[in-house]
């Protein structure tokens, strides 16, 4: 930080502020563990995609100044240095920065990489950067809301014409079959039976009647079992129709407000196989395309779509539907998806699907998607 109004001359003196206590407890605390960093590093589809995107674009990195936002173990900063960057600023809010510093020294990159501990929002750099690398994606892309911090870094530090790695992101939804829908329903029933015998015991042992809380317990359990998205590694065999891309971001131009605001987008899911549609699966991809002034010579795609060969630690977010939707090949599920941040914790998300099925025979009249009075609404949170 500035000392007497000036930036320190030695970049090893740079530092920012620690996250505030609530955000640390809600979000940052897990990232301080090497155990968690290891989990991300050994997701080779993820780490390999970044490695390829950086190393196959060495011409873009050669002699450039790079900023790694949320450096964690420092891996992306190390890749950038290996690709020939002149200087890399690796900014990490948590104590894992100390391990990153050790790794950088151990790999003899201390003259190129400066690890700076502090939140990117509070750090000052002695110069603007040509490139920003960051792995900021959470479940269903937006959980964790770390993109906010990347945009802060972009607006504060990226030179005009500079590029972000990744540069673009897309969100998808797909209709699927899922055995989990039934098992979660059974678990919900078991929880309610457990509650009934618990309230009996309370009356028998202590003479206290608790049945006035039956509805509240039911609501709580319903929210947990039926209205919370579940992590799953979905097999492509479960897909009952094609995925629909409902949102795209160009990270160079998207505004911070667009990311913060809730949004509603339309989707159309064409059913290919006769099946009860037991859930919607949500996933994302990111693209490494560089910027218009500094395009990547080798574009890379990191996809979290169902993939039998190689899944990622993000898996997919599965939104179970109670009851499932009966659909036939040629039918269409037409709907809107509304995504917002949870009021009590901006790192978590609220997802609402409002949808109806348009049978194949009715489709000529319903060519213009318009939700009807028969639409249903399903609420979920992503915890
Ligand atoms: C998903 S991890 C990625 C770590 C590493 N870049 C990698 O690819 O393995 C995100 C990291 O960003 C850090 N982080 C998140 N928000 C930050 C912020 N505003 N300022 C600095 N670091 C942040 C977290 O502590 C975490 O270590």
Automatic annotation (TrEMBL):
PANTHER family: PROTEIN ARGININE N-METHYLTRANSFERASE, PROTEIN ARGININE N-METHYLTRANSFERASE PRMT10. This is Protein arginine N-methyltransferase domain-containing protein. The keyword Protein transport does not apply. SUPFAM superfamilies: S-adenosyl-L-methionine-dependent methyltransferases (SSF53335). It comes from the Eukaryota. Residues 169-354 form the Protein arginine N-methyltransferase domain. It holds the Pfam family PRMT_C. GO terms for molecular function: histone methyltransferase activity; protein-arginine N-methyltransferase activity. It comes from Apatococcus fuscideae. Keywords: Methyltransferase, S-adenosyl-L-methionine, Transferase. The keyword S-adenosyl-L-methionine applies. GO terms for cellular component: nucleus. GO terms for biological process: methylation.
């Amino acid at each position: 930080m500035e000392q007497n109004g000036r930036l320190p001359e030695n970049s090893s003196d740079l530092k920012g502020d620690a996250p505030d206590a609530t955000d640390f407890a809600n979000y940052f605390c897990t990232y301080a563990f090497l155990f968690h960093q290891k989990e991300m590093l050994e997701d080779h589809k993820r780490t390999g995609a970044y490695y390829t995107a950086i190393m196959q674009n060495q011409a873009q990195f050669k002699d450039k100044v790079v900023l790694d936002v949320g450096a964690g173990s420092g891996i992306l900063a190390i890749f950038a240095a290996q690709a020939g960057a002149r200087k890399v600023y690796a900014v990490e809010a948590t104590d894992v920065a100390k391990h990153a510093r050790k790794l950088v020294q151990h790999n003899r990159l201390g003259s190129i990489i400066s690890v700076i501990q502090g939140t990117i929002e509070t750090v000052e750099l002695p110069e603007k950067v040509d490139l920003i690398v960051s792995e900021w994606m959470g479940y269903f892309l937006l959980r964790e809301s770390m993109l906010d911090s990347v945009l802060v870094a972009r607006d504060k530090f990226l030179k005009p014409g500079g590029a972000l790695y990744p540069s673009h992101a897309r969100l998808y939804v797909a209709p699927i079959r899922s055995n989990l829908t039934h098992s979660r329903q059974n678990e919900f029933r078991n929880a309610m039976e457990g509650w009934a015998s618990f309230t009996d015991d309370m009356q028998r042992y202590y003479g206290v009647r608790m049945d006035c809380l039956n509805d509240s317990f039911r609501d709580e359990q319903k929210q947990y079992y039926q209205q919370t998205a579940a992590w799953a590694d979905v097999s492509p065999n479960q897909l009952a129709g094609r995925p629909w891309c409902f949102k795209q971001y160009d990270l160079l131009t998207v505004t911070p407000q667009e990311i913060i605001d809730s949004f509603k987008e339309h989707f159309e899911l064409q059913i290919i196989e006769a099946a009860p549609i037991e859930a919607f699966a949500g996933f994302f991809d990111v693209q490494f395309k560089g910027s218009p002034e500094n395009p990547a010579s080798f574009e890379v795609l990191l996809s979290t779509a169902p993939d039998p060969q190689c899944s990622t630690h993000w898996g997919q977010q599965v939104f179970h539907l109670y009851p499932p939707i009966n659909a036939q090949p040629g039918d269409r599920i037409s709907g809107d998806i509304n995504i917002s941040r949870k009021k009590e914790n901006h790192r978590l998300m609220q997802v609402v699907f409002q949808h109806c099925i348009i049978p194949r025979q009715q489709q000529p009249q319903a060519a213009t998607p318009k939700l009807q009075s028969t639409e249903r609404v399903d609420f979920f949170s992503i915890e």
